[in-house]
Inverse folding.
C-alpha cells in the first residue's frame, strides 16, 4: 500500500484525502480500538464484527460494515489461523521424509539383497548351512540372467 | 502378429489419422492465440479464477498416472520381486513420457512461461509450488536416467551403461523419494484453500491421500498400458 509514501512516514494517499474519516490509517492496535469505539458508539449502524481482525490470521486492512460482509463480496468462512501455516505443516516434514525415507528404502534394499546373497551361497536344497561364506564371493547380480 | 502383417498398417489415412491431424491443427491454432493474446483470451482465466479445471486432469491425474514408474522400480529393485522385471522398461518409459508431457503442458498453463526457471534461482521453501517445481525437474531427470540404459544399449555404448548400472540403487531410492514428495505435494497445494474446497474434500491428510491414490492409479495405468501395448504390438501380456 503506497510504499513510497509509507517509506517517508506518510499515511496512504486514500486515507490522507478522505474528508469524513471513513478510511483511516495507523497502527493496527490503534485501528482496532478505533473500530471497537465506532461500533460501541453506534451499534445499530454497524455489524458487530471487525473484518480482518482474525480472518486468515489477521489482515493488514480492517473493515466495518452496515450490511453483512458476505453481501460485500468478502469471504466469511476464512479460517482464523494464518493460511501459510496450513501448508507449512506439510512442507516442514519434507526433510524428515527425505532422511527417514532414504534410510528405510536403503535398509529394505540391503535386506532383500542380503537374503538373495545368502540363498545363493547356501542353496535352497542344502540342509546344512555353511557358516564360513567366503567374503570374496560376488554378490548375486539379478540383471545379468533375467533379461528376456 | 508382427506390425508388417497387420492389414491396417498400410491404410494411411484411417479415421484416427484424420482425427489426430484435426486435433493437431486445432492445437496449433490455439497455441498461436495463447502466445500472442495470453491465457485470458484462450481460457477466460482471471485473477479471481487463476486455475482452470483441466489442471486437475493434465497435472494432477497425469502425474498420478505416471506413479507406476516409481512403484514398479521399488518393487523390482528394492523389494527384489523380479517377477515384475519385464514390465519395468515400458513402465519407466510411460512415467518419463508422462513427466515430459506435464512439463510441456506447464509451458501452456503458466501465465508467464518464460519465468519457468525462476524456481531454480529464487528459492522459497515455504511454497508448495517450489517443492512441486523441484520435484518435477529432478524426477524427470531421474526417469530419464532410469530409461537411458535402453538408449545406450541400442547405441552400443558400454561405459554409460556400466555407470548407470552402478548408480542404479541410489537412483531408484532418489526416484521413490522424489515421487513421494511430488505426489503428496500436489495434495498439499490444496491445504491452503480450506474455504474453496468442499468440507468433504478438505482434510489435513490431503498429501497422504494423494500419495496412496497415486500408487493405486499408477499400478492401474501399468495394467491398462500393458494390455493396450500387447494388443497393438501383438506381444502378449507379460
Amino acid at each position: 500500500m503506497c510504499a513510497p509514501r509509507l517509506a517517508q512516514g506518510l499515511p496512504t494517499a486514500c486515507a490522507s484525502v478522505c474528508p469524513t474519516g471513513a478510511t483511516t490509517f495507523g497502527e493496527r492496535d490503534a485501528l482496532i480500538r478505533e473500530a471497537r469505539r465506532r461500533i460501541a458508539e453506534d451499534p445499530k449502524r454497524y455489524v458487530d464484527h471487525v473484518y480482518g481482525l482474525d480472518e486468515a490470521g489477521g489482515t493488514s486492512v480492517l473493515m466495518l460494515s452496515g450490511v453483512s460482509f458476505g453481501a460485500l463480496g468478502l469471504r466469511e468462512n476464512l479460517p482464523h489461523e494464518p493460511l501459510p501455516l496450513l501448508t507449512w505443516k506439510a512442507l516442514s516434514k519434507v526433510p524428515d521424509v527425505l532422511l527417514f525415507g532414504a534410510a528405510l528404502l536403503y535398509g529394505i534394499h540391503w535386506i532383500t539383497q542380503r537374503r538373495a546373497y545368502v540363498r545363493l551361497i547356501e542353496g535352497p536344497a542344502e540342509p546344512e548351512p555353511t557358516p564360513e561364506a567366503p567374503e570374496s564371493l560376488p554378490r548375486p547380480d539379478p540383471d545379468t540372467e533375467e533379461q528376456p | 502378429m508382427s506390425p508388417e502383417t497387420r492389414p491396417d498398417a498400410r491404410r494411411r489415412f484411417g479415421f484416427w489419422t484424420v482425427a489426430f491431424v484435426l486435433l493437431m491443427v486445432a492445437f496449433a491454432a490455439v497455441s498461436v492465440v495463447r502466445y500472442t493474446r495470453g491465457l485470458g483470451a484462450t481460457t477466460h482465466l482471471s485473477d479471481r479464477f487463476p486455475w482452470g479445471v483441466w489442471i486437475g486432469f493434465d497435472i494432477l491425474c497425469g502425474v498420478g498416472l505416471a506413479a507406476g514408474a516409481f512403484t514398479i522400480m521399488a518393487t523390482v529393485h528394492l523389494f527384489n520381486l523380479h517377477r515384475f522385471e519385464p514390465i519395468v522398461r515400458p513402465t519407466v518409459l510411460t512415467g518419463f513420457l508422462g513427466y515430459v508431457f506435464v512439463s510441456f503442458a506447464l509451458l501452456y498453463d503458466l501465465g508467464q512461461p518464460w519465468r519457468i526457471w525462476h524456481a531454480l534461482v529464487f528459492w522459497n521453501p515455504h511454497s508448495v509450488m517450489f517443492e512441486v517445481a523441484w520435484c518435477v525437474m529432478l524426477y524427470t531427470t531421474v526417469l530419464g536416467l532410469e530409461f537411458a540404459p535402453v538408449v545406450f544399449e541400442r547405441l552400443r555404448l558400454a561405459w554409460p551403461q556400466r555407470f548407470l548400472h552402478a548408480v542404479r540403487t541410489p537412483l531408484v531410492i532418489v526416484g521413490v523419494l522424489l515421487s513421494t514428495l511430488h505426489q503428496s505435494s500436489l495434495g498439499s497445494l490444496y491445504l491452503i484453500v480450506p474455504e474453496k474446497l468442499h468440507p468433504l474434500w478438505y482434510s489435513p491428510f490431503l498429501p497422504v491421500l494423494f500419495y496412496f491414490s497415486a500408487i493405486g492409479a499408477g499400478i492401474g495405468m501399468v495394467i491398462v498400458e500393458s494390455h493396450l501395448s500387447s494388443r497393438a504390438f501383438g506381444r502378449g501380456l507379460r
Observations:
- Confidence is low (pLDDT under 50) at residues 144-148 of chain A.
- The CA atoms of residues 96 and 102 of chain A lie 10 Å apart.
